[in-house]
Amino acid sequence: MPRQTESLRRSSSRSACSRAPHRSEKCRYERVDSNRVFARSDRPRPHDIITLVPSIRHLSPDQLSGAFRRNGQIEQLLALETMPDGQAVVRWLVVSRAGRELQLRIHAVEDVGSFEFADVSEFPSVNPDEEFGEGVVVASGEDLEELLAIAEAHGASRDRWVNAGIIGQEYLDARES
Q1: Which residue from 158, 95, 160, 88 is spatially nearest to 120, judged by alpha carbons?
Q2: If pLDDT is split at 50, 70 and 90, which confidence band does 1 have?
Q3: Total number of domains constituting the chain
Q4: Are residues 111 and 141 in the same domain?
C-alpha cells in the first residue's frame, strides 16, 4: 500500500503573507492528507512537510456558476482611476440575486482606502444621488452567461471574477501595482 504523505497548505494568498509591512493578516496553515483538512493553525509544526499550494483567487469560467450558486454574488474590480478633477475613483462590478432575477451593478466610489482599510463597499459613492453602496443597475435577467457578456461590454474580463468579499484584496493588489 503506498504511503500517503501529509503536507501543509497555506490558506492565505502568498502575497498577503509575505508582504512585510502589512502583516495584519495571519497566514493560516492547514494540515492536509489526500485533500482532507485535519487541523488549522497559525504555524506549521516542526516535523511537517510544507507544501505551499498557490491560492486561487480568480474563478475559472467553469467555477463561476458554482460560486454564484453558493454565494449568490460574484465581483470584479474594473479600475482605479483618476478623474479630470483629480478625484481618485474605484470602479467594480457585482452580479447578485435580486429576488428571482439576477442583477449586474456597477459601483463607482471615492478611493479613500489604505492598506488598513480596503473594504471598497464602505467607500463613499461618487454619485451623490446614489444610496450608500447601492451601485447602479446596468442589466438584469435570469441568465448568468448573458449578464457576464454584458459585463464584458463594460470592461470586465471572464477570468478576473472573484467570490463575494474578495474585492478588497483585489483593490489592495491594484494599489500595489
Answers
A1: 88
A2: very low
A3: 2
A4: yes
Say if 97 falls within a structural domain.
yes
- Asked whether residue 98 falls in the same domain as residue 12, the answer is no
Domain of 87, in residue numbers: 61-176
pTM of the model: 0.67
- Residue 133 within a domain: yes
What number is the average pLDDT over the span 114-129? 88
The answer to whether residue 56 is domain-embedded is no
Residue 23: pLDDT band (50, 70, 90) is: very low
* Cα–Cα distance, 135 to 144 (Å, whole number): 19
